Amino acid sequence: TSKASTTASAGKDGSKRPVASLLQAHQVASLVADPLGPLKAEAAAMAASVSAPIGDPSQEDSKGDSLCSRCLFVFSLLLIAMAFPFSLIFCLRVVTDYERAVVFRLGRVLGQDGKGPGLFFVVPCCDLVRKVDLRTVTFDVPPQEVLTKDSVTVAVDAVVFYRIFSPVVSVTNVEDADRSTRLLAQTTLRNVLGTKNLSEILSEREGISGMMQECLDLATDPWGVKVERVEIKDVRLPVVLQRAMAAEAEAAREARAKVIMAEGEQRASKALRDAAAVIEQSPFALQLRYLQTLSAISAEKNSTIIFPLPMEVLAHFGSGGGGCGGAQKTVEKKE
């Protein structure tokens, strides 16, 4: 019997050893295939053992903040109810049609487009209201000393028209939208004019204005600002350059005047030549000219009257003068 029991126990041990070796081999293979398998299984077991999920610290803080906010909001409503109807003076706000109100409730913005126009309700202890004007605003850009591309210093000023199209963005994304837009307009004006020649600045104002408007609109879009129009107001040149340009223009005008006078004299000489040819062909034309001159002189109120001598009288005196010259010659011969 003892021998039989020993053989039976030996048979049982021999049958258990292959099973254990198989389990160990399977575990080793699983570890080789996925080394993090046991850790994943342990983590899954721990997650399953927890009844309620635990959030991260930020979520816990947000939950705590929301709880405090709700408590403060309820307390404010109780105060409003206790002070009713006098509390309505502080709880009701009015926004006109050209304005929007951005409401911060305990530091958070309510809504995406703001409140208004019209009447709306606020909680005095929790809400902070900032009104934003949506009308078009105009401002003058101060004169900027700019060095042009051809090394000429000019002073240029401009006018900018803009409006706010997103009240919430204009309040949350920039501290002061108006001041930021003004400073950006000054720098943009200098940058754009620095790439132009003096002749381009004087002749291409519309193109420069369009370029400035495009640059400003692109830069102010994240601020909720829409730049509608930019106009170059005045371009001031140095005094020396103004004098040089004035002298150049005066010289050009004098040259054109001389050319015009020369052309006029040329035309007048041609007309006189044609008139002389007509008078030479018709002696009566000269007599008609004499009569026209007499009528013109008599029409004027002058104390001196000039009577032109006829050509026949002048011819007679010319022949007589010749006779006197001949007599003088004869006297000289006698002497």
UniProtKB/TrEMBL annotation:
Localization terms from the record: Membrane
Domain Band as annotated: residue spans: 90-249
InterPro entries tied to this protein: Band-7_stomatin-like, Band_7, Band_7/SPFH_dom_sf, Band_7/stomatin-like_CS, Stomatin_HflK_fam
Gene3D superfamilies the record matches: 6.10.250.2090, Band 7 domain
Transmembrane stretches, start-end: 72-95
An annotated GO cellular component: plasma membrane
Keywords: Membrane, Transmembrane, Transmembrane helix
Domain of life: Eukaryota
Pfam families, sorted: Band_7
Family: Belongs to the band 7/mec-2 family.
Protein's UniProt name: PHB domain-containing protein
